[in-house]
Write a structure and sequence with these properties.
Layout: H1 17-31, H2 38-51, H3 63-70, H4 74-87, E1 90-93, E2 97-100, H5 105-127, H6 132-147, H7 151-165, H8 172-186, H9 203-212, H10 216-244
Antiparallel strand pairs: 1-2
Helix pairs in contact: 1-2, 1-3, 2-4, 3-4, 5-8, 5-10, 6-7, 6-9, 9-10
Length: 257
């Protein structure tokens, strides 16, 4: 399966020590222009580093190191970490300070149970009010997501597809709940495209076709099948990591959806 959050064919890459700091500095270089606020820049850089695995679950987030790598003072870094805590990506401990939040197998299973319930209902509701204009945007966004291979651009394209699919503009509270659940299990896995089985390779087009045909049952079944496949891959990964520990930092895995 493709790791549209699905099966696992290779161990996730871990970065450590100076390698992680160098990767963070490269991210900072890409984000260094176009910001009116260093706080927003620090937040975007750290968030992307968590989502793409540069800062993996359990990684200790030292404010001095982050500030030096990004090229800002500690204050915007501290503010960014507080915001990321509210996003569910970072947690603070009395003795360890801030760390990238980890997820247990049990928590991931619960998250996907809730996602399936909420997202299938969101899809049915949205299809009842689907317009030709929205359908056209949906197909364009799906193809954009399929064209992206990894990292932040893929995550953004995929998020935009599902925001349109679930009519986030008209149902902002529902979308906020869905997005929060996606982030809870997504973290660094959210940006990975798993390889090994092509069962979900064209899921965006297939899902859009079912929506265009007005076949709610078929669309919901495709979505459910996709989320269940994603869930099983994530659970396998988390179970393996809980027994084997972090994989060595060699190479990069392909990013997924």
């Amino acid at each position: 399966m493709t790791r549209d959050e699905n099966a696992v064919d290779e161990q996730p890459t871990r970065t450590s020590g100076g390698e992680g700091e160098d990767a963070l500095a490269r991210l900072a270089g890409r984000h260094a222009t176009g910001y009116r606020s260093v706080g927003v820049m620090a937040y975007d850089i750290i968030r992307e580093a968590i989502l793409d695995g540069t800062l993996p679950p359990g990684h200790k987030l030292r404010q001095e190191t982050l500030a030096e790598s990004i090229g800002v003072s500690r204050l915007p870094v501290r503010s960014a970490l507080i915001q990321l805590e509210s996003d569910g990506l970072v947690e603070f401990h009395d003795r360890r300070g801030a760390v990238v939040k980890s997820l247990s197998v049990e928590q991931a299973r619960e998250v996907y149970h809730l996602r399936i319930l909420l997202e299938t209902e969101a899809l049915r509701s949205s299809m009842g009010e689907m317009s030709d204009a929205r359908l056209e945007r949906l197909r364009m966004l799906g193809r954009t997501a399929d064209a992206e291979q990894e990292g932040a651009d893929f995550v953004e394209a995929r998020t935009a597809f599902y925001a349109e699919l679930y009519d986030a503009t008209r149902r902002p509270i529902q979308w906020e709940l869905i997005d929060q659940l996606r982030l809870k299990v997504g973290r660094y896995m959210l940006g990975w495209r798993l390889v090994g089985d092509d069962a979900h390779q064209h899921s965006h087009d297939e899902l859009t076709d079912a929506v265009a045909a007005g076949d709610a049952d078929a669309a919901v079944e495709l979505l459910r099948h996709h989320l269940e496949g994603v869930r099983d891959g994530v659970l396998d990964m988390l179970a393996a990591e809980s027994t084997a520990g972090p994989a060595p930092a060699t190479g990069r895995r392909r990013s997924g959806r």
